[in-house]
Amino acid sequence: MIQFIYCHMAINFTTVLFRFDLTNLINCIQMSDNERIMTLHPQGKTGVNILKRRYEIIKEFILKTIKEHGELTYQNLNKLAVQKLKKTFDGKIGWYVVSVKLDLEARNLIERIPNTSPHKLRLAS
Known about the structure:
Elements: E1 2-6, E2 9-13, E3 18-19, H1 22-34, E4 36-38, E5 49-51, H2 52-69, E6 71-73, H3 74-85, H4 93-106, E7 110-113, E8 120-123
Antiparallel strand pairs: 1-2, 2-3, 4-5, 6-8, 7-8
Helix pairs in contact: 2-4, 3-4
């Protein structure tokens, strides 16, 4: 018998038996839906405590978009985020873009290009 454990949920596979505990699956989904992350700020200020699932969506969008464009202004990044995510994202897109952008700057994943106005962003080198 092979046993896999995900989020406190055991799924057992045998040739004759398949057991699936729906209650544990629902609890697992609810746990991950409520998981939060405290963002960082590049100037050392206090970050914000946001839902991790929203953070991950915006983070992926920002990194992918900057990679595709090489560099772009914050305004263009925000405009693209609203256009792309408005039908599926369940939060205030502009607010999340600012919060996650600052976090990614603090984690040295992206950076502001010096002496640009309006400021431009690129992947950190």
